[in-house]
Amino acid sequence: MISVSMTVAHAVTAAASNATAGLTTEPVWPAMIKMVAGLLIILGLLYMGSALLRRWQFGGSNSRQGIISIKESRPLGAKRMLCLVEVRGREVLLGVTPDRIEPLCHLEVTEENHETSSFDAELKHRHSQ
Asked: Rounded CA gap, 16 and 26, in Å?
C-alpha cells in the first residue's frame, strides 16, 4: 500500500515538473499592451458604428430641410425647455418636460415677422398680452 502511494506521488511530481518545464518567464507587458490596444480598437469601432446609426436614424444632415424644423430651444430648468418648432409654415411653441410635450401656442409665420422677429421678442410680446 505504501509503495502504491509512493508511486502515485512520484507520478504526480513528475507530471508537474514536466508541465512547468515548458513555461518560460516572458514579460507580461507586451501581451497587456496588445490586449489594451485591441480593446481600444473595438471600443472605437463600436463608437463609430453608433454614430453612423444615429445619423441614419435621424436623417443625417438633410433633416434640417424637411417639413419640421426646430427654430430655437431654451432650457427652463432641470429637464424642462421651450422649443419653437416650424411645421408647414406655422410656428408652434412647445413646452417639453420628461413626462410630456405640450403645445403652448400656435403662431402664423409671415415673411416680415419671420425675418425680423426673434424668439425672445415673440415671448415678450405673448407674455405682455
From this structure: 20
Among 104, 118, 124, 110, which Cα is nearest to 72's?
A: 118
Beta bridge partners of 69: 86
Best CA proximity match to 84, nearest among 67, 103, 70: 70
Torsions phi, psi of 84, nearest 5? Answer: -100, 115
Task: Please identify which residue in the block is written with the cell numbers 403652448.
Answer: 104
- Does the pTM surpass 0.90? The reply is no
Q: Measuring CA to CA, which residue among 112, 120, 72, 116 is closest to residue 96? A: 72
Instruction: Compute how many other C-beta atoms are within 10 angstroms of the C-beta atom of residue 84.
Output: 20
Contacts of residue 119, Cβ cutoff 8 Å, sequence gap at least 6: 71, 72, 74, 84
Q: Is the dihedral of CA 109, 110, 116, 121 positive or negative?
A: negative
User: pLDDT (tens digit, 9 = 90+) per residue, 78-111?
Assistant: 889 999 998 888 899 999 999 999 999 888 766 5
